[in-house]
Protein 1
Amino acid sequence: MEHVLVVNAQDEVIGTMEKMEAHRTGTLHRAFSVLVFNSRGEMLIQKRAHTKYHSPALWTNACCSHPRPEEDILDAGKRRLKEEMGIDATPTFAYKFTYKTIFNPRMIEHEVDHVLVATYDGSPTVNQTEVEDWKFVSMEELKKDIAADPQRYTSWFKLIMDHKHPVPTL
């Protein structure tokens, strides 16, 4: 059973909770989203597997998840990037934001999302239970596609892309 870090509005840990319970109740908890760029400045995006419990078959950032209790956020990002995309890279912290998305009355994502950034040139070896497809895409092309077809993308990824500075200068 996987647990998440329950936090207050200042992102201070106030406890832990079973992950699915946190999503059923909409309890604020800590998460991270890893953005991966190649040396040409293109972003690696993935299409989530159809079997995911929320946001299935939607395009999003390279990976996202929750740190385990007692796990540093950067270590968690590195771990999950390897597990999900087969990429061994060390992310750095960019910024964080809080969001709440209600998928249905029994699935609410309420997270303080730490946006992490890493660089990688190569082809990922994806975990097919997590990832259906992937591609590197230019920021210009990505922004155009999100504007034209926003329902193809996850809620948190659209917020990241709407951020004043979604991507730090590499």
Note: The domain at 3-162 is CATH 3.90.79.10 (Nucleoside Triphosphate Pyrophosphohydrolase).
Protein 2
Amino acid sequence: MQLTRDGLMDRRVVIDQPRGGYRAGSDAILLAAAVPARPEQRVLDAGAGVGAVSLCLAARAARVQVRGVELQAGLVDLAASNIAANNLGDRVVILQGDIRRPPVEIGREVFDHAVCNPPFYAAGRASPSPDAGKAMAHGEGETDLQDWLAFCLRRTLTGGTVSIIHRAERLDAILLGLGRGGGDLVVFPLWPKPGRPAKRIIVQAKVGGKGPTVLHPGLCLHHEDGRDTDAARAILRGVEPLDLTC
């Protein structure tokens, strides 16, 4: 497996990841920035991959504990080396397992918050990548989007949050799934440039919440010339959180 070493959050986090497989980047930083975790709280990262979201979250939030679960054993091994490289072994652990049959350390626990960056495409809706790892990361298999959301809701304490980053076209399915146990939903569009449709969204639900769904103004990521906006740059560098309050 050929690897690249990449820096996130102005290289506050450094990860090794497969050159030809699924590539963690700005989505991981933005998702981690959206979690309202306080010191000493515990966060579940479902589908943790090489640990990008977990490590960005731990680097942002002092004394937060992160537990991840990842199906692909090779990615779990990479996650372990990334955790060690970032000196976060005392606060981040990623275990190998299926969310439908989670490892005991995950299945018996409930967390203050949960995050997930699940496969973007419903089964049969996109041509699979020739790279097996990338195909698994991008396309749903036996575990569909509703399974991911239900798992996160079950493993999160009442009053905690479940946050997901996904394609905007799956919004209806996300709202359906998070509504089965969550409320006070916030839909946060990520606008690629001014006047362009949002391709990505972050959706956050409060477990047990009863409030209405809110459409947030969101975040514009780039100027017309491709430069990061000041607001996006501050978040991607790890300086500012992603504020989902309205």
Note: The domain at 3-236 is CATH 3.40.50.150 (Rossmann fold).
Protein 3
Amino acid sequence: MGEGPLVLFLHGYPEFWWAWRHQLTAVADAGFRAAALDLRGSGASDKPPTGYDGWTAAADVSGVIRSLGVESAVVIGHGLGGFVAWSLPYLSPGVTRALASVGMPHPCVFRRQVARHLTRLASGSVFARGKWPWVPEREMTTDPTAVPRLLRHWSAPASSWPSAEEGERYAAALTIPFAAHAAADYHRWLVLSQVRREGWSYTRRMTGRVDLPVLQIRGDQDATVSGSAQGASVAYVGGESTTVVVTDAGHFPHEEAPARLNRHLLGWLDGLTSP
């Protein structure tokens, strides 16, 4: 681990900290302190019965940053981890030096996307199962092909990722007792909070601008995050805003095209520490 600023990585669904293995070594070799955690309910983290909401996830990550002996960190998140990374400056001010989100627009933009699809569902239209990157928890734990199939579905069509080993690792991680249920609880909160007071309160907290450097990364073939969603998120950035599109990558550019993503990421990190 380097001696520079702390860079903390937050994984998405259905992954765990190992998803960032390519970035951890690259960032540490560049002189930064690099760390990745398992979000509450995932991998080796505790799996309490509650706390799978935006407020608690932000508090969890804030506590981890302080526990590592620093006041603030550069926070980089993918998918659900990106949702938490965006939330931190609003809910735990002062712990984030800069943030990068991979495959996740600003929470207000994302929540509008969810609301539109819930409206389509309520009106009788088909809520396409393949439109969102999650499937029922029972299937994820009983069908060993479910996780690899999901990962392949959300990667670029021509991608060779995931390998058999990678698919097996992520499938095994979701068979840890209560892990699949916890992952599903995060997504249940994202949906149910649309009509709950806590969700409205959360959205009101997210409406200001993030006065920090922000990097947004998406794969050009990511069906969950459009270029328009990435663009709409810029309106919520008060600091320096950088957007990157990784070609020939889907929802997981940090794994599908790690070398190319790392070049963008390291260039951005270097800019944060340059005079």
Note: The beta strands are 6-10, 33-37, 73-78, 96-102, 214-219, 241-246.
